[in-house]
Amino acid sequence: MNLRRIIWIASFPKSGNTWTRSFLANYFLPEGETLGINELKRFTTADVRQDFFDKAAGRPFRARNFDEWLALRPKVLRLIAGSKPTAHFVKTHCKIAKVGQIPLIPPDVTAGAIYVIRNPFDVAPSFARHLGMDIDSAIDAMQNPNAMNASDTNIFEFMGRWDDHVRSWMNAPGLTRHVIRYEDLAADPEAAFRALLKFLQAPVSDAKLRQAIEASSFDRMKKQEEKQGFIERPKHMQSFFTKGRAGSWREDLTDAQVKKIRKAFLPMLEAHWPELVEETA
User: Fold this and answer.
1) Are the CB atoms for 119 and 252 separated by under 8 Å?
2) What is the pLDDT of residues 131-143, one digit of tens each?
3) Averaged pLDDT for residues 259-278
4) Which residue from 46, 45, 23 is spatially nearest to 34, judged by alpha carbons?
5) Parallel, antiparallel, or unpaired for β 148-150 and 156-158?
6) In angstroms, rounded to a whole number, what is the distance separating the alpha carbons of residues 229 and 37?
7) How far is CA 257 from CA 143, 144, 180, in A?
8) Average model confidence (pLDDT) for the chain?
9) With 0-12 CB in 10 A as exposed, 13-18 as middle and 19+ as buried, what is 274?
10) Domains identified in the chain and CATH numbers
């Protein structure tokens, strides 16, 4: 059976994954309907879904260690791929890599990918809030080749270094991908999402495009979180939707932190954010 049905919506954490998923969910709904932030799982799934791990394990799954999670992941992804009869969207924060002989993003279940990137100056303070730590510690975590998150039941997200994560998705051989820069999305969401729909070979309705952009706007999602909470928000995090602007690093980072990020990730900055290389020189 051909299970190449997963279109990954991939990113390093705090790079625009939720925004992209919300737009797609609202765009592909029947006209006139909208989907709230706590209903996104009706439209997209994720590679950390507890129910798929329970099904794959044949019992309530709680990994004793990383290796136990890794060994089950391929079976979980085959279940996710086969859960719908055609191509569908799956969120991931994992990088593309093999751990031992096990690929984190197996080609045999992959139809393509949407990869969302955000400059590391803006990622760092947002990642710090996400992890519940200070910014310097978050910058260190972004340089950790073994960086990962884990749920209460030890379902892991293996991200690695921020620049390795970007490189793995940007350069993966044979992967049909579409790349979105968060900064371009913030500057002109209509142009960015129109290009995404073209990549997906989806018909473009101007009215639905504008409706989906409004329904998935940062302000709209922030207001929903304030009223209803957000089921994807880490327990220690006060607010998932905090700023959402491109360039807020200029207010959040010290000069020393800017220099530290620039030094750590200069080649990737030169490749994708040359304007920031010049600004921070």
Assistant:
1) no
2) 889 999 999 999 9
3) 96
4) 23
5) antiparallel
6) 9
7) 13, 16, 25
8) 89
9) exposed
10) 6-279 (3.40.50.300)
CA–CA distance, 154 with 48 (Å, rounded to integer):
10
CA angle centred on 65, ends 237 and 80, rounded to 5°: 75
Token reading at 161:
């270094």
Residue found under tokens 């004793």: 64
pLDDT digits (tens, 9 = 90+) for 167-221: 999 999 999 999 999 999 999 999 999 999 999 999 999 988 998 888 876 666 6
Inter-residue contact 62 to 153 (CB < 8 Å) = yes
Question: Mean pLDDT over residues 67-92, rounded?
Answer: 97
SS3 label, residue 53: helix
CA dihedral angle for residue 277, residue 17, residue 232, residue 142, rounded to 10 degrees: -30
The burial class, CB within 10 Å (0-12 / 13-18 / 19+), for 123 is buried
Query: At what angle are helices 162-170 and 255-272 packed, to 10 degrees?
Result: 10
Distance CA 82, CA 88 (A): 10
Longest Cα pair distance anywhere in the chain, in angstroms?
55
